[in-house]
Amino acid sequence: MLGLDISSSSVKLVQLGQDRAGQFTLERGGIEPFERGWVGDGNIEKFDEVVGATRRLISRCGSKTKDVTMALPTSVVISKKIILPEGLSEREMEVQVESEANQYIPFSLDEVSLDFCVIGPSAVSAGDVEVMIAASRKEKVEDRQGLAEAVGLRLVAVDVESYASRLAAERVIKRLPGGGVDAVVALFEIGAATSAMQVLRNGELVYERDQVFGGAQLTQMLVRQYGFTLEEAETKKCAGELPEDYGMAVRQPFVESLAQELERALKFFFTSTPHNRVDYVFLAGGAANVAGLAEAVTRHTSFPCQVVNPFDGMDIGPGVRENKVLRAAPSYLTACGLAMRRFLR
What we know:
The chain is an alpha/beta fold. It contains 10 helices and 16 strands. It has helices at residues 47-61, 90-104, 138-150, 161-173, 216-226, 230-239, 246-272, 293-301, 322-327, 333-340; strands at 2-6, 10-18, 24-33, 39-40, 43-44, 67-72, 78-85, 112-121, 128-137, 154-160, 184-190, 195-201, 204-211, 280-285, 305-307, 315-316.
């Protein structure tokens, strides 16, 4: 099954295999950039252009797989944990979920796609189970369905971006010393305009918040410094074709500014929760690989920081352009989590 991640700047594809021992193999991977305005706030604004880019990506990667998992932005999904009695039949649980959902969803259930899953026994109510409800407007799901059909794929599941990235991050956390047990990890996915912060501990989400900063600031700095158009700046940034003074004049100020934003986000987390430290800071997303960023975050926060590679410890298949994919590995976190869904059934 493919994991296909649609963001405002690109479409990312990941295809995984797994052997009987549970070892993953990265079988296919690639990114196709979008032009500005094709996707905005999770909405596909230029459908034909996004379809064309997705087709090019699938063709270039050489994938023959038809089943795909895609995701919706966290901002368009309403999620809520509820407690239900243990032992309900599936139909009884559906009725209970719909009844509970009416309290939290501000529009008619006829207008939404609603799903739920049992998380496990309740920690606070003996004989009950925790159930996660997720709901989104039907047109949001239909956008993904239409895109999948237009490129010849079968959409078998729609996830939430933050859930998918968390799934991939948990695999990396388990590779930390001690298996990552009891480690408090702050995961920052640095997007173009916004960055998503999730704090994780033992597989549980402790805290999440979106921050209004991202990699687009670097592009804007290039425009101001060198007089590029936005398109030229983005192209040159991705190709590494930048003036000799780029490091000092643009990259270093950007890195310092971004590190300060991450520091402020952590401080807000500490003032909003009982926590006063994290054990690790993880960086993902397109800007995570900017030279010097992880070191600057460690310097500003005093917490160890690392750039996330969701393919760490995986075998790499012959169909993967290894150097190119691994250079952009932090950008594939969500797509990797989507591809992993196949193995959790």
